[in-house]
Amino acid sequence: MTTKPSKDLETFPNPQPGRDYTIRISIPEFTCLCPKTGQPDFATITMEYVPAGLCVELKSLKLYIWSFRDEGAFHEAVTNEMLNHIVNTIAPNFMRIRAEFNVRGGIYTTVIVDHANPNWHAPLPVNLP
Description:
Blueprint: E1 11-13, E2 23-33, E3 40-50, E4 54-56, H1 58-66, H2 75-90, E5 94-104, E6 107-116
Antiparallel strand pairs: 1-4, 2-3, 3-5, 5-6
């Protein structure tokens, strides 16, 4: 294969750094391994972030997500690892990652982790009629 999984995330400058806006990314084919059994765990990962100076380049994000495929990871650990890595790479104003794992032994697991820049203030919500 010419493409291989990678932990390297590429970025590009935020095209509208003076405006708060949300980027939502849905990744329905996340796979890692159960650290106890070695069996595959499947999840849908949803990332939402308000960029500051940088955005995540999507092809590198795809390769980053792929890099977990053969790694054993607890659901809580892998979700927090993703948040920490991406926040350290792009320093967003806000980021939330939601990992919804498929059923395993009759149990569904959803892990939600957030990061907020303490110097950023979220805009007030607009309620439309």
